[in-house]
Specification:
Helix content is 40%, strand content 23%. By secondary structure, it is α+β, with helices and mostly antiparallel strands. It has two domains: 78 residues, Ribosomal protein S16 (S16 Ribosomal Protein, Chain: A), CATH 3.30.1320; 38 residues. The model has no long low-confidence stretch (mean pLDDT 86). It comes from Loktanella salsilacus.
């Protein structure tokens, strides 16, 4: 049986509240779980001490038993110091989408046309003045 430490959603519509639970990975997200390990209230400010609460002894027990935390729970555990920090590489983070790339090339073409038009009249009077 593969165990996961994951979030189980509670709360009403647009007011999320999560329980941190140890559950069998085959069970539904909000379904049956073995043990409740803590809570996560994302509506609270990031520096609020009640935003994430965990029973670290029980979390460590489940980690020792082979439970795998989900990505979000792993980040919470890293912040709490229960897990070593992983190096993550989001290679597509700074890359714009297709539409943004198209807009950028179109804008660059327009700017090049404007620059070329601005430079052409400035050069013509200078050439005439040099000829005289």
């Amino acid at each position: 049986m593969s165990m996961k430490i994951r979030l189980a959603r509670g709360g009403s519509k647009k007011r999320p509240y999560y329980s941190i639970v140890a559950a069998d990975s085959r069970m539904p997200r909000d379904g049956r779980f073995k043990e409740k390990l803590g809570t996560y209230a994302p509506m609270l400010s990031k520096d609020d001490e009640n935003r994430v609460k965990m029973d670290m002894e029980r979390v460590q027990y489940w980690l020792d038993q082979g439970a795998q935390p989900t990505d979000r729970v792993a980040r919470m555990l890293e912040a709490a110091g229960a897990m070593p920090k992983k190096d993550r590489a989001n290679l597509k983070k700074g890359e714009p989408g297709k539409a943004a790339k198209a807009r950028a090339t179109e804008k660059a073409a327009k700017q090049a046309a404007i620059d070329e038009a601005a430079n052409a009249p400035a050069e013509a009077p200078a050439e005439e003045a040099a000829a005289e």
